[in-house]
Each structure stands twice: as C-alpha cells, then as structure tokens.
Amino acid sequence: MKFLSSLLLLAGFLASPVAAEQPAPHPETRFLERDGGRLAYDDSGGAGPLLIALPGMGDLRAQYRFLRPLLVAAGYRVVSLDVRGQGESSVGWADYSAHALGGDVLALMDHLGAPSAVVLGNSFAAGAALWAAHDAPERVRGTVLLGPVLRDLPVSPWMRAALWLGFAGPWRTAFWLKYWDSLFPLAPPPDHAEQRERLARSLHEPGRMLALETMIGLSKADTDAILDQVRVPSLVVMGTDDPDFADPADEARLITAMLRGESLLLEGAGHYPHVEAPERVAARIVAFLDGLR
C-alpha cells in the first residue's frame, strides 16, 4: 500500500477535497433481509441481462453512479449492492469475508428471481464475485474484476505500524478518507467532494469503521486458493497507477492468467478505473458482456 507513506504525514489529513459539481441523482434504496442483517441495493430495472455490482471495502455502491447509466444504455439491468457493514447495509455481521459476500450475491439473485447474472466487484469485493462464480458457476455467467485485491500482498512491519496508528484513535475516519482520496490519481470525478462527504457521514455511523477494520484484517488466502478453479469468463480491469499494488500491471497479468480471462489496463488510472474513466471501462465491459450472449 504505497499510500501509507503519505498518510504518515498526519498534517495531510485535513487537505481540502476537490470542488464538486452538480451531484448525480441517487436511485431508490431497496433492502434484502438476510440471516444476520439486511443488505441495501438499488435496481435500474428493465428486461436486459442482469449485472450485480459490488463496491470495495470502505466505500458505497454509489461508486457505480457513472458506469451504471452507460451499461443501462447498452441494454443491461444493473443492480448495485452495498456490502455488509457499509453504506445503507446493516452492521454487526458475524462474517465479513469475501466468501460470505459471494453468498449475498447469490441470495440477491434469488430475491430478484434471476436465474443468472454477471457479477462486477471492486477491490476486496472482486473476491465476492469469484466466490459466487465458484459456488454457483451455472448461475454466474461471468465476472468483471475492477482493481481486484484477491491475494495477501506483502506488508512490511512499518506499514503494519502505520495501519495500527491510523485506526487507533478518533482520526481513523480521516485516515481512511485520506487513503480514499489517493485512489484517483488520473482524474477525480467532478462530484468527488460530495461523494467524500457522503462516505464520511456513513463511516461515522456506529459500527461501520469496526466493520471496515474487520475486513482489512481478513486474509485473502481462501480467495487466492480458488483463482485457478473459477472457470467462468472473467474480465480484469486495472489502473496502472493503482496505489494498492507495487506493480499493478504485473498483478493484472497474474490474475488474468490464473483465471484464463481477459484484461484492460488503463494508463494512469488508480483503484477506481470505472470512476476515473467510465466511458472507456464501459465500452470494454460491454464488449466483454456481448461476447457472453
């Protein structure tokens, strides 16, 4: 995590966010009751093939606000889901693992009466897409993995100390938001400040930072172990300046090879290529999806 070196400069916590333009409209929130809590989602509707989109840890389903209309315009039905402990989904779950999130995807498909779907997952939630595909390959037609964090990456002792310090006090939300700001090196979206404020309000709600800390502490060894077992078509989308990886391009090549999938590398983009360059990402996703029909 290259962002940690800058985060150790605590004076940077209060840096001013990017000025916002007119915020995008937010669709109606719906809920799915699960054993242990409830999950919030929105649904574009329509009769097109179903896409289920999950944000990464410590973020909101609104990260798909730019990609969703482009995919809907291409004829797809898009359902965005707040993962456990985040956004408008409840906290206090016994299990925050990617495998558990994959089960939520399949439960949502049941709830929607959908026999199949393509699953999009960002960061940690890319693992949820793979677990859904692993557990129900007959129902998951494909996966789109956006800035996927699927393996335990090397973390030095000083990085571990920095993480401990960052989450050790009342500044932990500011710590996380400073990191979140660093994930858009190419082009922060025009409504970045407004989305940052929404995310800050969410993370200040009781239990949300604890859920985030729990996710951060989870090993991804179980997801790593299924990478060469998933056989549904997969598209890996990675920014070449993603700060979560020492060499994002190399990580993309490795994951793509293990999945026998396809890939798109976006020069200069960070951890949210679908937010920084939604038109380019949407065009590649639509080409991938059209190939599944």
Description:
By secondary structure, the protein is α/β, with parallel strands linked by helices. It has a single domain, classed as Rossmann fold (3-Layer(aba) Sandwich). The chain contains 12 helices and 8 strands. The protein has helices spanning 3-7, 67-73, 98-112, 126-135, 157-166, 172-181, 192-203, 208-217, 221-226, 248-259, 273-276, 278-290, and strands at residues 30-34, 37-43, 50-54, 77-81, 117-122, 140-146, 234-239, 262-266. Strands 1-2-4-3-5-6-7-8 form an 8-stranded mixed beta sheet, with helices on both faces. Residues 1-24 have low confidence and may be disordered.
The CATH topology assignment is: Rossmann fold
CATH superfamily: Alpha/Beta hydrolase fold, catalytic domain
Number of helices: 12
Order of helices and strands: HEEEHEHEHEHHHHHEHEHH
Could you name the CATH class? Alpha Beta
CATH-derived architecture: 3-Layer(aba) Sandwich
Distance between the termini: 38 Å
Q: What's the arrangement of secondary structure elements?
A:
Layout (H helix, E strand, L loop, with lengths): L2 H5 L22 E5 L2 E7 L6 E5 L12 H7 L3 E5 L16 H15 L4 E6 L3 H10 L4 E7 L10 H10 L5 H10 L10 H12 L4 H10 L3 H6 L7 E6 L8 H12 L2 E5 L6 H4 L1 H13 L3
Parallel strand pairs: 3-4, 3-5, 5-6, 6-7, 7-8
Antiparallel strand pairs: 1-2, 2-4
Helix pairs in contact: 3-4, 6-7
Features:
12 helices, Rossmann fold, alpha/beta, 293 residues
